[in-house]
# Entry
Amino acid sequence: MLKKFEGIVIRTTDFGESHKITAIYSREAGKVPAMARGAKKTNSRLAAVSQLFTYGYFLVQTGHGLGTLQQGEIISPLRGLKEDIFKTAYASYIVEMVDRSTQDNEPNPYLFELLHQSLNYISDGYDPDIITHIFEMKMLQVLGLYPEMKRCSLCGATEGSFGFSIKENGLICHRCQERDPHFLPISQNAVKLLRLFYYFDLNRLGTISVKQETKNELKKAIDLYYEEYSGLHFKSKRFLDQMDSLKDKM
# Structure
């Protein structure tokens, strides 16, 4: 059956001498795997539309197992993601997160919008660290993870200074921190941003400026949480961390 999807290419794998296997994350059906026959040939009508990060309409012959990409119409190539190696690194991490965190043919329009918005923001020049951290915090619910971000995980207090506890799955207040000797002390500005990233609507994102030291706190807290609870390890994350180290030296 031929089906038309609005989607973004989140994975491509070479297959044989001339084909590609793609994964398209679609608004209508979630992740749709499809063979793009002949897409590695420069004169193929599928060459451009099957490139990573491409946003467009895709006509896929579906059935049991792997579908076949018949044709596509590019809405946006998100070229900004491909012309800057740092943007490529961030975007690669985001699409791998979506790919590894989802099953085939399970619709999630919320996740499609989150993916689409995040890649567009990075392509358009927004701070990729911040966009990526927002994406990571919002992906937690997709993964079925719900850290306590509104109040102390132990006593329920909403007032006071807070740290982050991996053990207690969220924030803990200064009165309870001695109950977790391994809690992560972070600035109150970092606490506010973790809360904001978890709850706010990405559509409302305006100009945001965050000091590097606060970004480092956010990264440490989020990385530790994913390592403890997600069970996922991303190849692109290692590459992104290497790129961050290179960026710091430039």
